[in-house]
């Protein structure tokens, strides 16, 4: 067996390059410089007498030898890091952690008022960077180390990524308070007859729209938006209806100008979850952030202590 297999850091580099398909991405994920990753890769190549990874476009692809080695090295690394994680701790009080989280605009309103006070109290030196959610890049961003966690309502099945449910919410219909045709209740026929505001499918919340369009092929969508947060203001000033999670509806009801109506169709709940690496693959800071979010934001139904949104 090559001597390199005894070097835990080399195995970490190998797995990071394999999973991120990029030397640069592996460096970001591991928190080391790109030259350090390149040096480690050269040691791997020498030890195994194989190039291990070859350039392809903007990244790298594994050689047959690397593909043969990966399952065993990954499993061994997971077992070792699971054992070492008990001593690989971070002191949040003094550690200058830089944490990165992807959220939608609604996620910012729902979760940051909960996360930030806890972060300031427990990790006063930490910096939390929020970036807009890009669903198509969640898997690659996590594997490349570009983000430490992702909170979204769209259900994602991603290899090597763990899904931890946070909250359940039901969907309601928003209408202007002075809507000329809608009263205090909403029938299915009234719902189908009115113009609607739609949300881009990549944001999530696609199930209610799919159910409504299947039931009413003639349903008229007059506006598609990429973010959910601006929908209530459009509804206030038009005769359009919009389907949103109750959390947003109740926040906006307080500002006035809206009716919040029960959805006339049977639609599933909105389930928001945190996506993150398995604990054995997380850094100490990532494990700390995951624990913080699950402790502060998780509804009691999922084993947490967060206060759910109304009628959740």
From TrEMBL:
This is LysR family transcriptional regulator. It comes from Enemella evansiae. Belongs to the LysR transcriptional regulatory family. GO terms for molecular function: DNA binding; DNA-binding transcription factor activity. Keywords: DNA-binding, Transcription, Transcription regulation. PANTHER family: HTH-TYPE TRANSCRIPTIONAL REGULATOR LEUO-RELATED, TRANSCRIPTIONAL REGULATORY PROTEIN. Signal peptide: none annotated.
